[in-house]
Amino acid sequence: MKVLIVGGGPTGLTAALELARRGLHAKVIDRRDSTSTLSRAVGITSRSLELLSHSGVAEKLIEEGVAVRSACIYLGNRLALELPLHSGRIYFPTILGLPQDRTEAIMANRLKGWGVEVGYQIELQGLREEPNGVVALFSEGTEERFDLIIGADGVRSTVRKAAGIAYPGFDLEDRWSIADVDTEGWPPREKFTLVKASSGIVAVAVPIGEDRHRLVASCDNAIGAFPMGLKVRKIYREGTFKISVRQAESYSKGRICLAGDAAHCHSPVGGRGMNLGIADAAELAKRVVDGSLAGYSEFRHREDKKVMDITERGRKMISGKSLKARLEFRALLALANSLPALKRKLGQFAVEF
Ligand SMILES: Cc1cc2nc3c(=O)[nH]c(=O)nc-3n(C[C@H](O)[C@H](O)[C@H](O)COP(=O)(O)OP(=O)(O)OC[C@H]3O[C@@H](n4cnc5c(N)ncnc54)[C@H](O)[C@@H]3O)c2cc1C
């Protein structure tokens, strides 16, 4: 079977790895110049590590990443709750912090071992369905016929648009910000930090290396959003982004399948975006090889929807600015503090969901 994967992000690379280890070498293209240098997703779940263990990628990720031991939740300057992030029921007991560019580099390197390399500076411009295949139209003016095309080409997916698959949902008004920084003294390494300021603004710090953190906040300035102040030694990257919550109405149409951001996007609360893409891609590759592609769309649509719904509930609870939302959040923290079993369960849920 001749397969084209459009997009060399974490989803496309996972699909290529999972096909390659089963003996199917796909063509992978990306319009970028080379591998990404952007550290977008920084949390890798146990489920992703388990899926990536079959290709030998997981052990390399674990070697480089930071195992996040607990989540510290602050109300203003006050530490209101520390949740142990741990589950004994899964492949890796907690969340792994690692910048996305490193994850992608490790995946691409492993892929090379199977003789598959991403073809950079090749853009898919359109598709033409024919009775015996689907023809991909490339930026160089060339075209090639495939049995299957996997659209792992991100939120603005050309594949999705060319296939005429709708991407319903909504865009949130708020602007959020991120910064990747080296800090001194605080926040602690190996802990995830969430601060809810009295203004209602939420600021998060995820450890991604020695003294290095990814900061995210529900305002324009992630570094300034921590009420206790941060000693920042070096800023690697700063930016703002808006959140959309969308899911493709179907993940497949004829000989075309979607996976990753091409199929869904949601808020970074919970850090599941890249992880859902890895799960889509692994499932898709398995089905391509065992001939059960027909059930792919329905299965992954349902699984992703469950996680997206939890993520949306989490976003509303954490970043809600109304008095009611703030009181509910405080009440949950107080309850978890007084009930060790609930505290354990919440930490376990945060790792497993
Ligand atoms: C600021 C920010 C912070 C984030 N933080 C987190 C986080 O903490 N945790 C998390 O899990 N997720 C996070 N995400 C989301 C995460 O980055 C995405 O879910 C993930 O990158 C999706 O991977 P993907 O491979 O599906 O798509 P992408 O990573 O977008 O890759 C798509 C690739 O397709 C290529 N492409 C697009 N169109 C074409 C074309 N026509 N022809 C050829 N190539 C094409 C692009 O160049 C790109 O390389 C964050 C995102 C952002 C923007």
Helices and strands in order:
Elements: E1 3-6, H1 10-20, E2 27-30, E3 43-44, H2 46-53, H3 57-64, E4 66-68, E5 70-75, E6 78-84, E7 95-97, H4 100-113, E8 119-120, E9 124-130, E10 133-138, E11 143-146, E12 148-151, H5 158-163, E13 169-183, E14 191-196, E15 202-209, E16 212-217, E17 232-247, E18 252-253, E19 256-258, E20 264-265, H6 273-290, H7 296-319, H8 323-338, H9 340-352
Helix pairs in contact: 1-4, 1-6, 2-3, 2-6, 6-7, 7-8, 8-9
This protein binds flavin-adenine dinucleotide.
Please, could you describe this protein's structure?
The chain has helices spanning 10-20, 46-53, 57-64, 100-113, 158-163, 273-290, 296-319, 323-338, 340-352, and strands at 3-6, 27-30, 43-44, 66-68, 70-75, 78-84, 95-97, 119-120, 124-130, 133-138, 143-146, 148-151, 169-183, 191-196, 202-209, 212-217, 232-247, 252-253, 256-258, 264-265. The protein has nine helices and 20 strands. Strand 10 and strand 11 form a beta hairpin. The protein has two domains: 3-41 and 99-167 and 248-316, 3-Layer(bba) Sandwich (FAD/NAD(P)-binding domain); 172-243 and 318-352, D-Amino Acid Oxidase, Chain A, domain 2. The mean pLDDT is 94. The longest helix has 24 residues, at 296-319. The radius of gyration is 21 Å and the shape is globular. By secondary structure, it is an alpha+beta fold. Helix content is 33%, strand content 31%. The strands form four sheets. It has an eight-stranded mixed sheet. Flavin-adenine dinucleotide binds at residues 6-12, 29-32, 40-43, 100, 123-124, 152-154, 158, 178, 241, 260-261, 268, 271-275, 277. Residues 2-202, 237-287 form the FAD-binding domain. Its cofactor is FAD. This is FAD-dependent oxidoreductase. Pfam families: FAD_binding_3 (PF01494). Keywords: FAD, Flavoprotein.
